[in-house]
Automatic annotation (TrEMBL):
Residues 80-206 form the Nitrite/sulphite reductase 4Fe-4S domain. InterPro entries: NasD-like, NO2/SO3_Rdtase_4Fe4S_dom, NO2/SO3_Rdtase_4Fe4S_sf. This is Nitrite reductase. It comes from Lysinibacillus contaminans. Coiled coil: none annotated. The keyword Ligase does not apply. Keywords: Heme, Iron, Iron-sulfur, Metal-binding, Oxidoreductase. The keyword Lipid metabolism does not apply.
């Protein structure tokens, strides 16, 4: 008797760029891949598709060939939600957004974690209401944690540190994730983790280790 192949969800998008755009080649590729499948559009600039678990590596390679990025779905860091970089790539820090995404998207964490980025204080990528938020202000990057966009518990994130330079920013984000991965309970959201662990404790802890 043949085994039924296990299907899993994958998240797909066009990577970090000007807007969340897909070109005709990518759309045709997606349509051919989908066949009778439906495509689910999420609020986090991702498209969900289904794939046989054993084929994930092959599918990821094929999607990458047409410029589509593929991420795991579930208890992982999601791909970076971002603004449209309307004022230009360098001015709005697109290389920094790409590097943040490269470093953290797809990392296993206790519960799905949503990072977001905006290239100027107007904040179109909504970084202040996501788990980890980066806002470019003048020549630096302000790092926020613990925002929550949902329900009666909605709140704005707390500023960890303003006017960071890229290397300091990457290092702090890495350290925050290490603490969450180490101390977060299974399926405990980052928002709930911060309530339990200490909304002030975590920033203090990572900033102290940064100074050592
Ligand atoms: S946050 Fe600023 S740079 Fe980004 S899309 Fe909005 S206005 Fe443009």
């Amino acid at each position: 008797m043949s085994e039924i192949e296990k299907k899993i969800k994958l998240a797909v998008n066009g990577g970090i760029g000007f807007g969340s755009k897909l070109n005709a080649k990518q759309l045709v590729f997606l349509a051919e891949y989908l066949g009778d499948q439906e495509l689910e559009l999420t609020t986090f600039q991702q498209l969900y598709i289904e794939a046989a678990e054993n084929d994930v590596e092959f599918i990821t390679k094929k999607f990458n060939e047409v410029g589509l990025s593929v991420y795991p779905v579930g208890n992982y860091v999601k791909s970076l939600r971002h603004c449209n970089f309307c004022k230009g790539e360098e001015q709005e820090g697109m290389p920094v957004a790409k590097e943040i995404n490269r470093r953290i998207a797809g990392k296993p964490v206790p519960f799905t974690l949503r990072p977001a980025y905006a290239g100027c204080p107007i904040g179109c990528g909504e970084p202040l209401v996501n788990d980890i938020g980066v806002l470019k202000v003048k020549n630096g990057f302000d790092l926020y944690i613990g925002g929550n966009p949902k329900g009666a518990e909605a709140r704005v994130g707390k500023l960890v540190k303003a006017q960071l330079q890229p290397d300091e920013l990457y290092s702090l984000i890495d350290k925050i994730l290490v603490v969450y991965i180490k101390h977060g309970k299974k399926r405990e959201s980052f928002f709930k983790f911060l309530n339990r662990y200490g909304f002030d404790t975590l920033p203090e802890q990572v900033l102290i280790t940064e100074r050592l």
